[in-house]
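Why does this matter for the project? Reviewers at the last site visit asked to see concrete outputs rather than summary tables. In response, this paragraph embeds two records directly. Each consists of the residue sequence and, immediately after it, the corresponding structure tokens. Nothing has been edited or filtered.
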Amino acid sequence: MEKYDAIVVGAGTAGCLAAKTIAESGLSVFLIDQKKSGEIGEKICGDAMGEHHLKFLGLEKPTGGELETRIDGIKIFSPDENTVFTIADKDFIGFLLNRHLFGQWLLKKATDAGAVLQDRTIFRAPIIEKGAVTGITAKNMKTGKVSEIRSKVVVDASGFFGVVRQTLPEEMGIDREIDNADVEACYREIRQLKQETENTRFCEIYLNQKVTPGGYVWIFPKGGARVNVGLGICMRGKYPNPKKQLYDNTFKKPIFEGSLVLTGGSWFDPTRRPLDNMVSNGVAIVGDAASLVNPIHGGGIGPSLLSGLFAGQTIIEALNKGEPTKEALWSYNNKYMETYGKKQASLDIFRHFLISCSDEDLNYGMNEKLMTEDDVLKAGMGDEFHLNITETAKRVFRGIRRVGFLNKLRLTVTMMRQVRSHYNTYPTSPDGFDTWRTQTMKLIEEGKEKLIK
């Protein structure tokens, strides 16, 4: 029977960085993925990543074609496309990735550090003994053999479906299911245009509740007259087919006339706050499996890398001191919530605000500056922002026709501040977590009740 210090299920961004971090300390790591090794990294997504994430993680910029295009910011279009907000800030500067090459780059870092990769392997079930995860059973698709692999800790880096998370017993205290209302159904294509667009340095986001209820259309330049184009739709109630919406609306734009489809596909994005708790005895949840995606723009590559690093560091500390108990792994929660989680949670409130807005609200609000570029910038970074008395008076005068919109924006600002303040009190140990979580649920439900229902 094979035994390792850590098993990482999934060789995506979070899994590879977790495996790399743990292996670099000299601990043994077994990394599995259902894809062939040469296909790891291929994923349907928006391909965008902020440059600041590489700097924070201490990773050098890859130079082998992994970074396809430099991006200077985001342009956000109102539903009628008469108003455009240009957001150019350090947190919105970054790259469009060659997702496959970037994934291979991360995989090599993990295996070079000593992680043992077994590709074409499917997770079957966790091994649980005395209330702790002590390994997994997995099927090698090349041989058909089902094996038990033992470890001191298991990392679930399996993406949106969270195959480990969903099979954990309820008493381990990790949420197993994600509500459909907190998920976006997405479809995207890489298209070869007949000629390069005028915009080659900004990602474009188009708001339109009729086309993308609860989501948006994106057009991201990849260089060489290629674009990553797609849309996401909130899975609340009855929602339209994303691919049909893209073809019936976006592809009617003149720039797509005569364009060719290079690749296409669909996926799901968990656009909500992080899992309230991401650890238990012998297990940690990272990346999309832990719902670590920006609720507004859906970016998950940076947060996934961050979670892989923090989980890896915490596992090293726990194993060096003794057993990877829930208490010993708890600081992973603290590190993530303090760095990115509280931002993500406050953006969950802003997401509810956007879902509640009609196209008429958004057109008027953006055109009359009831919602400004500075608001969007600060909200997008999860920063606190205030509507001072003078500015509020101006907005009331401009927004007399849309007082409801302005009042809703003011309520959103207040609730975002409350959520961020609450996350600053995240417990430093499992003690007190139940009380904290009860208050979290109250705040999130209050946001839904006041802004959406």
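We now turn to the second protein, recorded in exactly the same manner.
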Amino acid sequence: MKVVIDGAGEIGSHLAKLFFREGNDVAVIDDEKSRLEALSASVDIEPVEGDPTSIKALTEAQVNKADLFIAVYPYVQQEVNIVAALFAKSMGAKTVVARTKNLELLSSKNRQLLKNMGLDMPLCPEKIAAEQVVSQLRYNASSDSMDFAKGKLHIGAFRLDEDSPILDTKLVDFTTHFSKKESSAFRVIAISRDDTTIMPKFDTKFKYGDLVYLIIMKEGVKALNDYLGLEDFSASKVMIMGGGSVGAITASLLSSEMSSVKLIELKRERCVELAEEMPDNVEVINGDARNTDFLYEQGLSSSDAFVALTGNDEANILACVAAKKFGVSRTVAEVENMEYVRLAEEMGVDVVINKKLVTASRIYKLTLGDRANYVRYMSGTDAEVLEYTVSEGSAITKGLLKNIDFPSDAVIGGILRGNEAFIAVGDTQVQAGDRVAVFTLPSCVKEVDRFFK
């Protein structure tokens, strides 16, 4: 597949690495030679030096042959990306995506207007990240989570500490602690250990520090949480550090779900802007959230959740660590440096949000066509989670799962059939119309996709 990326900033560079890793032909346009050189040093791309809307640069990058054109140019007015995408579409690119910060353009009505003009997908990484924060605040036990199958199936990740009852236990023995009915309501689908994702076998042992991924039916959550010593809770009071785009959108989204939302911003001028645009139940506070005494004065110890969304990864991580010491049950940090993600988790941050990953998930779905309803990367692992609707006659329906030679680095976790959700096992046969949740390593995404054609 031919992919052209307009912009070698953080998101563009991450996408370039992702698409190249999966065997695609990738060209990247940027007017900063240093950014192109830095990217070329780590991945074999075709660098094209030029302005984001330069017809010459677009022609040199061969957008007329592009299966996918992505405009995520940094440090420009975001309308520039839309113009670049529309140029690419008119020059022959099949599918075009553009980054924008204009939330008005993301309404369903305006999306259709842009679609009619030729833009297949407008996206706002800040809004995507904010939505991810809100989603994570609906759960307490998991360090990362998502729902599938209309909420009837849930994927959660659980970090094993020194008190975990399953340390040094084999997977086959873990399930014996539950009744047959209880054990049929969940399945361990992966383990992240020392920067490696393991698809577990029956004799795989759980170790200290493992991040264990499970797919769980709603009726299996209580038994699993009881055994693992995890507790559910619902947040009603949230404190947010950072009044930038992600923080502001998050506060606005949470205002309809929480009884109290406090948004702390260091810059006084920005506080004035926020106070005018935020809903009435969002309290905007001017102050330095890096000061723990200040946070205590603002009621941190009585907050259910603390969310750090400044542009400084280190400050976000340390603030969350401090919040934990004050007894806050749930902490969320925006961490854009990929090397800091695992460090944040090891320091006790409950949820790590990375705009590059969540944005890449949205864009990557386009490469799988209409078969995949959903694609997402989960923190702590390089694996991807996909949800497919099964087509009539697709290869996945040709036999029992244990007999169809499904890739060993992928797991079908759960299935929604009509209104019935269930966990997939070896004797399960997938049927046309099923909605299927798949956990897979990047190396075999394309092979998995072929089973659903």
